[in-house]
Structures are given as structure tokens and as C-alpha cells.
Design a protein that fits this description.
globular; Rossmann fold; three-stranded antiparallel beta sheet; binds 2'-deoxycytidine-5'-monophosphate; single chain; 8 strands
Length: 240
């Protein structure tokens, strides 16, 4: 394998259901990097807001909440399918942040510039803390525009909804496919049309279309792109 630097960030952005978290976690393992899913921060703020009855359009209250909430993301403490433990003020909310009510409100909450600003420094610190694979919507464009590798994962709405449908069925629920598709379409629209760091590929991102591809295929493709790019960084002696 090509020599890779001791410190780098691989930014993986893309819409819901494009496979960012599965692919990101596997890629991180392969490159001996830390995996970090920034979506959990927005989800934690949304859950905390719902619990406090703060409406998703109350920009000031949400920004204040995002600024003071203590969210910890740690190595998984048990083997129940979680990628990490997510704690709010010490309480394990790993699965609660995946609830339908959080799904429904998180795009609106995360569209507020004040909420995004409150979460920016923490993401930058984590992203620059070593070898990191960071997934989200705006990592390559706004959080770490100088990331060494930028990937934008694509998949059709139909395919992404199908994957989410299968995930939920596998987890034992009886989802409605059309509801999932509509909810995803709604979130795509809010995430990509918001004024503050909308979902879009960075100018220098590599677009990776995952329609019809297995997870292993996608991980292989991204690992190959990353190795070339990180090899160039080492060769050029760029500070990492
Ligand atoms: O990836 P996810 O579905 O867990 O993300 C939940 C929401 O969080 C998503 O709809 C938009 C928001 N988000 C964001 O605005 N910026 C990020 N970097 C990550 C997530």
C-alpha cells in the first residue's frame, strides 16, 4: 500500500441514504482512521429541542441550545449495531436520535445558521485531530474545505429510499416505502436549498455514484482515490 500521512481528513458528503455512514466506517477501518458522523450532532440538538418543546423554527432558541448542549460521541459500548455511543449530558441517546420525530425535524433545525455556527468548531477540531474520515453534508465545502480527500456520494432517490426501507425492515419494523421516499425527498430539498452551507459537492470533490454498486465496491473505489491523493500529499511533503 502507498505510504499515507499520519494526519489527514477524508470528507464524505452526500444526501441521506447515499451510504455515507456504512462506507465511511469501513473506509476508516481500512485506513486505520477515526470515523466521525457529523449528522449525530444535528440529531442530538434536534432531540434536545423536541424534549424542551423548542419549535424547529425558533432560530435563536435553537442556536442557544446548540451552543450549550454537551454531546459526547464515544466508541460503541455494546454490540447492537451502533457505530458509536452518543450521549447528551451523560445520557445514552444513540437510538433515540434515530427516531421518526428526529428524522422529521432535523433538516429544519440544522438549516439555521446559528445552529451550524455553534457546531462548527467542534467538527473542525475533530476533523483535524489525526487520521479522520468525516461524513456529513458540508464537510468538503464548509467544515474542512482544505480536507486532503473529498468525496461526494450519489444515489438516486428511489435507490436511497429502497436502502432505508430494507434497513428498517431488517430492524424489525414495517415501514411504508412511499412514506420513506417522500420524507427523503423533503429532507433533500431542505438540506440542499438552505442558505447556510447547503448540501452540494465541493468544486474539487470526486463524485461517486453508488446506484447498483455493492458497499465493498464503493469502499474499494474510494480507498483507491484516497490512496492516490494521500500518496501525493506524502510525496509533496505537504504538512499534514
Ligand atoms: O446524515 P444524517 O441523516 O444523520 O443527518 C441528519 C441531518 O443533519 C441532515 O438531514 C442534515 C443535517 N446535517 C447537516 O446539515 N450537516 C452535516 N454535516 C450533517 C448533517
Amino acid at each position: 500500500m502507498t505510504e499515507i500521512p499520519g494526519r489527514f481528513t477524508i470528507a464524505i458528503d452526500g444526501p441521506a441514504g447515499a451510504g455515507k455512514s456504512t462506507v465511511g466506517e469501513r473506509l476508516a477501518k481500512r485506513l486505520h482512521a477515526v470515523y466521525f458522523d457529523t449528522g449525530v450532532l444535528y440529531r442530538a440538538v434536534t432531540l434536545a429541542a423536541l424534549r424542551r418543546n423548542i419549535p424547529p423554527d425558533d432560530a435563536d432558541a435553537l442556536a442557544e441550545l446548540a451552543g450549550k448542549l454537551v454531546v459526547a460521541v464515544k466508541r460503541p459500548s455494546c454490540d447492537d449495531g451502533r457505530q458509536s455511543d452518543v450521549l447528551i449530558d451523560g445520557e445514552d441517546v444513540t437510538w433515540e436520535i434515530r427516531s421518526a420525530s428526529v428524522d422529521h425535524n432535523v433538516s429544519e433545525v440544522s438549516a439555521h445558521p446559528g445552529v451550524r455556527a455553534a457546531l462548527l468548531d467542534a467538527q473542525r477540531r475533530i476533523g483535524r485531530s489525526g487520521r479522520v474520515v468525516m461524513v456529513g453534508r458540508d464537510i468538503g465545502t464548509a467544515v474542512l474545505p482544505d480536507a486532503e480527500v473529498k468525496i461526494y456520494l450519489l444515489a438516486s432517490l428511489q435507490e436511497r429510499a429502497r436502502r432505508r426501507y430494507e434497513q428498517l425492515r431488517f430492524a424489525g419494523s414495517t415501514p411504508d416505502f412511499d412514506d420513506i421516499l417522500e420524507e427523503m425527498r423533503r429532507r433533500d430539498t431542505i438540506d440542499s436549498e438552505r442558505a447556510a452551507s447547503p448540501l452540494r459537492p465541493a468544486a474539487d470533490a470526486v463524485l461517486v455514484d453508488t446506484d447498483g454498486c455493492s458497499i465493498d465496491d464503493v469502499v474499494d473505489r474510494i480507498a483507491a482515490i484516497a490512496e492516490v491523493r494521500l500518496g501525493d500529499v506524502v510525496e509533496a511533503g505537504q504538512p499534514t
